[in-house]
Amino acid sequence: MPRPCAAVDVGSNSVRLLVADGSGQRLTRVMEITRLAAGVDATGHLDDAALARTLDTIGRFRELWTGYGVTDRVRIAATSAVRDAQDRERFFAGVRTVSGVEAEVLTGEQEAALAFAGAAAAVEVSRPTAVVDIGGGSTELVVGDADGRVAGSVSLQLGCVRVTERHLADDPPSAAQLIAATAMVTDRLDHAERTLAEQGVALDEVAGLVGVAGTATTLGAIHLGLAHYDEDRIHGARLPLVALEAITADLLARTARQRASLGPVQPGREDVLHGGALVLLETMRRLGVDEVVISEADNLDGLVASLT
Description:
By secondary structure, the chain is α/β, with parallel strands linked by helices. The protein has two domains: 5-105, ATPase, nucleotide binding domain (Nucleotidyltransferase, domain 5, 2-Layer Sandwich), CATH 3.30.420; 111-300, Exopolyphosphatase. Domain 2 (Nucleotidyltransferase, domain 5), CATH 3.30.420.150. 46% of the residues lie in helices and 19% in strands. The protein contains 13 helices and eleven strands. The strands form two sheets. A six-stranded mixed beta sheet has the order 8-7-6-9-11-10, sandwiched between helices. Strand 6 (129-134) and strand 7 (139-144) form a beta hairpin. The protein starts with a strand and ends with a helix.
C-alpha cells in the first residue's frame, strides 16, 4: 500500500506544507508567513531573524508530517529568496538540522512547470491557458498550448516583497512610488513577452488565466467579500479585471494597518499585498484577459504529485 508523503514549499514570503496519503488525497495543508526574502534583494544575504522564523516553522511542520506517519517521502523545495541569497548554505544546513531532509532549490522553470501542473487541471479555464504564480521575490508565468501541455515559461525577478521593498516604501505609497513600481512591473513583463516569443509563445493568443499562491488567492477572497479566508470558496473563483482594478486602487490607498483589517488578509501579508496586486493587474492587462480564475492548487500540489 502506498505510504503518505509531504511537501514543503519555502517561498520568499511564506512556508507551506501539504501532506497527502498514498493516493494523493490531502491530509492537511497549512501555511505560515515568515518573510524569508526580507532584505535579500538589497543585501544579497538572508536576514538572521527571517531565517530563524523559517527554520522554526519547518521544524514544527516536521512534527505535523511525522504525526501523519510520513517518514522518508518528503520534499522541501525553496524558491526565489534562497536562489538569490549568497549565503544560501545557511538555509540548507538549518533545514537539515531541524528536519533531517536535504532541501532543494527549484529553478524558475521548474517552479513554473510545477505550478502549471498543479493549477491548470484543477479549475475550469479557457485554453490556451496561462498560469501566473506571484511569489515574494519572483513571478512565474507559464503558458500551455490548446492541448494543455506546457508551451513556454519564464521566471521574473518580480514579486510582492521585491516590488514593495524597491518602490512602495511609504505607507500608503506616494503617486511617484506607484509610477516607479508600475514601470518596474512593465519592464519585467516586456522581458517575459520577449522570452516567451523566443519559445514560440505569443501572449496575445492566451485565452484563459489562472492565478495561484497567496497574492491571487487573497485578492480572490477580497473580491468575494469574505470575512475570513475560506479555501473552498476561493478555489475556482473568478476575479474580473474591472474588479481587480478597483481592489488594487483601494489597497494602494490604504495603510498596512488598514489592509490588515480586511477580513481575509492573513497576518504578515498586509504590507506587501498591494505590490502583488499591481503585478497581477498589469499581467492581466498585458495578456488582454478580462478575468483570472483563482486556484488553490499550485506548485505545492505539483511537488506532492511527484511523490505519489
